[in-house]
Specification:
Blueprint: E1 3-14, E2 17-28, E3 32-36, H1 43-50, E4 57-62, H2 71-74, E5 78-81, H3 93-103, H4 109-116, H5 132-144, E6 150-154, H6 162-175, E7 182-187, E8 199-204, E9 207-213, H7 214-220, E10 221-227, H8 231-235, E11 241-245, E12 248-254, H9 258-261, E13 266-268, H10 272-285
Parallel strand pairs: 3-7, 3-8, 5-6, 6-7
Antiparallel strand pairs: 1-2, 1-4, 8-9, 10-12, 10-13, 11-12
Length: about 290
């Protein structure tokens, strides 16, 4: 796969706080990477560094561009959606389309029109008359109509209802993604995006705790459900995390032998949300 993004030794500090610590990460064409972590973990700072919006130490290469010195040229091929869609309230939808067509050489008006045709948004509508979900849809139409190789999303569905969130990610796959592009999306709600991810990186306190292909990570971790009489025996195998409810205890294991676990109870493949909780908990206890 063609590498589109390379991050090496990324560090960032604000006064006495070390926000990012020696982050190494690469993203190739065809990958959809979820950068997942709790609030304050460093996700947004990492994206701001990628976009040249903040100073940093280390090396970042996006499509051959250095975001520190070549940001203007880079943004012709990199699209970005922030956690809050900010558009002037007086702006008409038609004016937004005309503006984008005038300022961005890679903006495809026909593609934006096709996207908007799937919504209830009219060309004559002003931003101030649109709901929060509709503003997000308009913003998405404007950004996804840019023929970019890299799309960066920072908590893009924050504050939206579940239906609008699902529509957002459906449009993302249908109207932007292909095997020549890559997407980075940050979130602290991994359960809503894990079905679209090819890769995941967990970040906590500025450190990358794990970065791996989704299929590999699901093979690596196992979930074991045991009855109360098997709990202590299961805990001798050193689970990352355990949770008890209604007489059943569920334990998460990293690189454990499935044949050994199956003698104690029922073994299953955990969700990425399960793995995230386990890994974060282990780090806190270390």
């Amino acid at each position: 796969m063609t590498e589109l993004i390379s991050i090496k030794g990324l560090n960032k500090s604000y006064k006495n706080k070390h926000v990012l610590k020696d982050v190494d990460l690469s993203v190739s064409a065809g990958q959809i990477l979820g950068l997942v972590g709790p609030n304050g973990a460093g996700k947004t700072t990492c994206l701001q560094s990628l976009l040249g919006l903040t100073s940093f130490e280390g090396t970042i290469d996006i499509l051959g561009y250095n975001p520190k010195t070549q940001r203007h040229a880079m943004l012709n091929d990199v699209a970005y959606i922030a956690d809050v869609a900010v558009l002037p309230k007086w702006l008409k939808v038609s004016q937004a389309l005309t503006y984008m067509q005038g300022v961005h050489r890679n903006f495809n008006l026909e593609k934006a029109e096709t996207f908007l045709a799937k919504t209830n948004i009219q060309h004559s509508d002003r931003v101030k008359a649109l709901s929060k979900g509709m503003v997000t849809q308009l913003h998405l139409a404007l950004i996804l109509a840019v023929d970019a190789k890299v799309l960066i999303l920072d908590e893009p569905t924050l504050g939206l209802d579940i239906l609008t969130r699902r529509q957002f990610y459906n449009h993302l796959l249908e109207d932007f993604y292909d095997e020549d592009k890559c997407i980075i999306v940050t979130t602290h709600q991994i359960e809503e995006i894990e079905h679209i991810l090819t890769d995941v990186a967990f970040i906590r306190d500025g450190n990358l705790v794990i970065s791996e292909n989704v299929d590999n990570i699901r093979e690596r971790f196992k979930l074991l459900a045991v009855t109360n009489d098997k709990v202590e025996q299961a805990k001798t195998l050193k689970p990352l995390f355990s949770n008890s409810i209604m007489g059943i205890t569920t334990l998460l294991f990293d690189k454990a032998e499935e044949s050994q676990l199956s003698t104690l109870g029922s073994v299953s493949t955990p969700t990425l949300a399960d793995i995230f909780v386990g890994v974060m908990t282990q780090e806190q206890e270390a």
